[in-house]
Model the fold of this input.
Amino acid sequence: MTGQYYRAKLRAAGIPYRERCAVTSITQSAQGFTLETAKGPVHATRVRLAAGGWLQPVAQILGVELPVQARINTVSVTERMPPIMSHVIGHATGLLTMKQKANGTVLVGGGWQGRGTPQTGRGDVTAESLLPNLALAQFAVPALGDARVLRSWTGFEANVPDFYPLAGALPGVPHAFVLGCVRGGYTIGPYISKLMGDFILGREPEMPLFDPGRDFEKALT
Ligand SMILES: Cc1cc2nc3c(=O)[nH]c(=O)nc-3n(C[C@H](O)[C@H](O)[C@H](O)COP(=O)(O)OP(=O)(O)OC[C@H]3O[C@@H](n4cnc5c(N)ncnc54)[C@H](O)[C@@H]3O)c2cc1C
Done:
């Protein structure tokens, strides 16, 4: 739904965009950047890398090593249920997040790990992760025992060793920026994007950002 919303906004504003179109190379010259894609080149005076779990190979295109790793989170969705929860539910000592959507389906997650890497495409759901995830959900909300699971899937979420975001200038590449590893998902995304927009346009963001060139090992000690 977020994608559809932004697609409509971009269209209405007459801003060109390309979907399902990987950037395969980036070159920088005095005129700016040229990004090669299967649908032809794109020219830009500035670039912002926001490639999620794929940030490491994308930054490598510009010769920068970012210590980005990807977690493979598992999520399941149930069939429609009568109202059984009105808040997001977590568990104090277990890996669990749950929420019921307006259509009655319940989303169950919490960071249980599937199998795979961003480089090899879609990850796989594993029974070793899925079964305890669903058991914990049913333990927390017994009414879920009546629900059938419709679908389970995995997705990639990026992080760096100190688990803080990467939000700022790409080290050593003038006019290139990076935004990723935010880990707060949609909750933080819109606000940190606003801060990044200010930073890229040379305005002082109202909150400090997270320098992608910081010493990650030092931050851990
Ligand atoms: C299973 C799962 C459930 C989640 N549930 C929630 C939730 O309920 N609430 C919440 O707030 N957050 C949730 N999150 C977290 C949230 O989805 C992420 O934090 C958020 O999507 C990260 O946004 P991003 O733009 O940094 O990266 P992504 O959304 O991963 O976007 C990166 C994009 O870069 C593209 N890309 C990669 N390589 C290239 C290339 N070479 N050229 C061009 N494009 C490229 C990818 O195709 C992708 O579209 C969940 C994450 C997962 C995995």
